[in-house]
Amino acid sequence: MKFGIIGAGMIGHFHAKAITAMTGGELHSVFDLRAEAAEKLAEEYGAKAFSDMDAFLADPELEIVTVGTPSGAHLDPSLAALNAGKHVVCEKPLEITTERIDQLIAAAEKDGGECLAVLLCGGDQLVDPLGGDLKGLLADDVLAGVERGERGV
Asked: Could you give the CA distance from residue 76 to residue 27 in angstroms, rounded to a whole number?
């Protein structure tokens, strides 16, 4: 699975670590409006760096996008990724209002993608939200229709 990260700040570093620790996970690319931040994180993991969102999302090899922008700034990058046909794993909270969450759900349903929120983040929990293989869950359509889930550690 080829992942791209939106947001090269502290959370982006946690996402990169979790992706590379996951069996079958590959950090393919990093996007940040701050080109230097994207380049630094991408170089650390041997990934491509982008400071242009359209170019980042146009990459046909990119399969799954993690969104690690600040709370309240998840909607636009998540919608852009979903509209580009990518699966999205979004840092908690998914969004700050139910109306904004509804927009994400509608976009995921429209484009046949998945939009997951990271509710618990520790180690490789990030890309393993249900304790299983994310690639298998997506491929087997196990997550279709899931609106809310919880997992305790």
From this structure: 22
Tokens of 101: 């969450």
pLDDT at 31 over 90: yes
Pair 14, 41: CB distance under 8 Å: no
The DSSP annotation for 21-54 comes to: HSTT-EEEEEE-SSHHHHHHHHHHHT-EEES-HH
Helices 35-45 and 10-21 pack at an angle, to 10 degrees, of 20
- Cβ contacts of residue 84 below 8 Å, gap of 6+? 57, 58
By three-state DSSP, how is residue 3 classified?
A: strand
Q: 142 vs 66, 69, 103, 109, 124, CA distance in Å?
A: 19, 27, 21, 14, 20
Q: What is the pTM of this model?
A: 0.76
